[in-house]
Amino acid sequence: LATRTYHLAVVFHGIAERRRQDAKANGIENVAEVFNDLKIRLDDTFNFTSEQRGNIRGVAQDAIFQADRTAFIAMHWDVERMCREQQNDLKLTNIYGSPVREKVLMAFIKRTCSSVRNSFRQDIRNSIVGETRCTLAEFSYESAVKYKRGGPGEKVEAGFTIHNALLVSCISISISPLLTMIHPP
What is the pTM of this model? Predict the structure, then answer.
């Protein structure tokens, strides 16, 4: 009788131990499921840090000030490519790999590029008309300070000045009829 009781105790102990292990394993799986659920919920409320926003704007400003840039409307594709290539330097590693966050990034890049384009257009216009009129050399230097990452250095390279001269010329041609209408000769 004592041997049989001992044997039943060992069997029940084994069953109880397996139940504890199963409960422990299920608890770990539940924690993993909870973390996955939290990750999905956090994707909906994702926001960029101020540093990330500043870095993306810096890339967009640098892109608009490239001496060989001719396509301004679709420059957001170039900015996205540059951000992807420089994601470690720009601290964007938490974005790539998550489709939801990449979509939010692309929307932010489009808005930022539009803002940078408008600002650059206004700077060109202001360099031609009004109280802030200035020479091409002054405009090139000031816009290099504002838009070019790292600034202009000692002087603005000739390619940037030529590019700005073409842009100023295009704006001057398109703004001339408006000025004639406002201030007739």
Answer: 0.70
Q: How far apart are CA 159 and CA 167, in angstroms?
A: 12
Report yes or no: 139 and 168 within 8 Å, Cβ to Cβ: yes
Residues with Cβ within 8 Å of 69's Cβ and at least 6 positions away in sequence, in order, are: 63, 75, 163
d(CA 98, CA 118): 30
pLDDT in tens, 75-111: 999 999 999 999 999 999 988 888 888 999 999 999 9
Residue whose C-alpha is closest to residue 123's, from 102, 148, 143, 144: 143
Cα 143 from Cα 123, distance rounded (Å): 8
CB atoms near residue 118 (< 10 Å): 10
Spatial separation of the C-alpha atoms in residues 178 and 180, rounded to whole Å: 5
Q: Which residue matches tokens 């001339």? A: 176
SS3 179: helix
